[in-house]
Write a structure and sequence with these properties.
alpha+beta; about 280 residues; single chain
């Protein structure tokens, strides 16, 4: 499964953009205007609401059903809520990419877990007892909802080198398994499809100082994710039976898990690096 040469795009998801930029802003590595501008890659307009009255009071946000506010209020509230945190504490924000059957990092059931599973992503505000979930509610409009979550969530930390190596292994194993099953599709024009898929993705900016290795892992995960998408959508991918298609899905599942793990590890490493820059002056 060779890598396509494309412009650096890195991407991931809206929650990744919010997690990295908010961490950079909280620790003086980015201005608030730049953090807010980065979100525009995911929609021309962004609005924020609280899931209930208690959250609304904590974050000074309108509750769901009221007129929403903009994401600048979330940054303001985050700064207020994290101002008392010591340098040794875990970063205040963390990316999770849950799927059915794997809800690690969500703190159990409840409205937050349900919303995060529907979205396939969320930002957990570690130690603050809250999480944020994005939802595209109309073309060009993204709504972020802040939910209460269990305050004792234990972060699922995977070192970035470990995640990168696991992704490499999963690529090799999945390619080998598909070849053994004789269901590795070789249809004409697949490289053009892959290039088009990658180029159609949003291209959010990342803060200056984002670790190069984290960006490299995000880039590779994005490329492999596009390959996985095409392989999964290719009906039946060269398979001659439903059972072969099932085996194909089983062969690709570890790769999907490795992509999610790599993305989380890369984003959370960037968050950690910015959180360690406590000696720098805070941004605007």
């Amino acid at each position: 499964m060779d890598q396509l040469q494309v412009p650096s795009i890195f991407v991931c998801c809206p929650s990744a953009t919010l997690a990295v930029w908010s961490s950079a802003w909280l620790h003086g590595a980015a201005a608030s205007d730049n953090a807010l501008d980065a979100l525009l890659a995911w929609g021309e307009e962004h609005e924020v609401v609280a899931a209930d009255e208690t959250v609304a009071e904590v974050f000074d946000l309108p509750v769901t059903g009221a007129v929403p506010t903009g994401p600048a209020q979330v940054l303001t509230s985050l700064r207020k809520l994290t101002s008392a945190r010591s340098p040794g504490e875990a970063p205040a924000v963390r990316l999770v990419l849950p799927v059915p059957g794997d809800v690690r990092g969500l703190g159990g059931g409840g409205a937050f877990t349900e919303a995060a599973l529907r979205a396939g992503e969320a930002v957990v505000l570690s130690g603050l007892g809250h999480g944020i979930v994005p939802q595209a509610i109309a073309e060009g409009l993204m709504r972020w909802t802040v939910y209460p979550v269990a305050s004792d969530i234990v972060p699922d930390y995977v070192p970035l080198p470990e995640a990168e190596h696991a992704l490499t292994d999963a690529i090799r194993d999945s390619a080998g398994a598909l070849q053994e099953l004789d269901i590795a599709s070789d249809r004409p024009g697949v490289r053009a499809e892959l290039s088009a898929t990658l180029r159609s993705r949003p291209r959010p900016d990342w803060p200056s100082g984002t670790p190069g290795r984290a960006l490299r892992v995000l880039q590779r995960a994005e490329e492999v994710g596009a390959i996985l998408l095409l392989a999964s959508a290719d009906e039946p991918g060269g398979a001659l039976s439903a059972s072969a298609a099932t085996r194909r899905a089983q062969a690709l599942r570890p790769l999907s898990e490795a992509i999610r793990t790599a993305r989380c590890a890369a984003v959370n490493e960037a968050v950690r690096v910015f959180a360690d820059q406590t000696g720098r002056s805070q941004g605007a």
